[in-house]
Amino acid sequence: MITIIVATDRNNGIGYNNNLLAHLPGDLKRFREITMGHCLIMGKKTWESLPNKPLPGRQNIVLTDNELDCFECAETARSMDQALSLCKPGREVFIIGGGSVYRQFLPLADRLMVTHIHAEFTADTFFPEIRPVEWYVAEQEDYLSDEPEVLSFSYTTYLRRM
Ligand SMILES: NC(=O)c1ccc[n+]([C@@H]2O[C@H](COP(=O)([O-])OP(=O)(O)OC[C@H]3O[C@@H](n4cnc5c(N)ncnc54)[C@H](OP(=O)(O)O)[C@@H]3O)[C@@H](O)[C@H]2O)c1
């Protein structure tokens, strides 16, 4: 099972200036709970954007072509296959970004866990289109707010159509 986990805005934006678009504390807590004990695959820019490295209690695998890069407390991989082969047996695989890594792994993914933020932000990095011919909504939880300063969002789990 390969799961992509991501937060997107209404335009599929996911990041700007190597940062997330919005701070949703509940979403970060949920991310931690869902991924705890498992294997995380990420691109180098996402790794660099993490305020605290590595993400504790999980296997951190960073994709990079740069042989000189050395990451304390994380494993490095130079290809998608190598990243997958590094994942320890019995652990689930979570693809945690960023844009380039989501694009590459989307064709391999079995499940998408998307936090759809019901707002628009300035973005320079985007998630690919989730095509209804390929994916169906298996679960959705909506958290809607009437207050303009509180973001509304939905946790949506998509599974690949057979
Ligand atoms: N909203 C969300 O849920 C979410 C989650 C994560 C990240 N983000 C955002 O996404 C943005 C970063 O995304 P990004 O697309 O710019 O960068 P990225 O995907 O995080 O990292 C790109 C880098 O990863 C390496 N890489 C990617 N694929 C590789 C492969 N197949 N083999 C070897 N190396 C590979 C390359 O590093 P080298 O150049 O070293 O070779 C590449 O330059 C940030 O704004 C971040 O905040 C958002």
Largest sheet: 8 strands, mixed
Q: Write down the secondary-structure element order.
A: EEEHEHEEHEHEEEE
Q: Rg to the nearest angstrom?
A: 16 Å
CATH architecture label name: 3-Layer(aba) Sandwich
CATH topology: Dihydrofolate Reductase, subunit A
Q: Domains counted in the coordinates: how many?
A: 1
Catalogue the unreliable spans.
Answer: none
Helix content: 10-25%
Number of distinct beta strands: 11
Helical run tally: 4
Overview of the molecule:
With 162 residues, this protein is an alpha/beta fold. It contains 4 helices and 11 strands, in the order βββαβαββαβαββββ. The strands form 2 sheets. It has an 8-stranded mixed beta sheet with strand order 6-5-4-7-1-8-11-10, sandwiched between helices. It has a 3-stranded antiparallel beta sheet with strand order 3-2-9, with no helix packed on it. The longest helix is centred in the first third of the chain and has 11 residues, at 25-35. The radius of gyration is 16 Å and the shape is globular. Bound molecules: NADP nicotinamide-adenine-dinucleotide phosphate. Residues 6-7, 14-15, 18-20, 42-46, 49, 63-66, 69, 78-80, 96-101, 104, 125 line the site of NADP nicotinamide-adenine-dinucleotide phosphate. NADP nicotinamide-adenine-dinucleotide phosphate binds next to β1, β2, β3, β4 and α2.
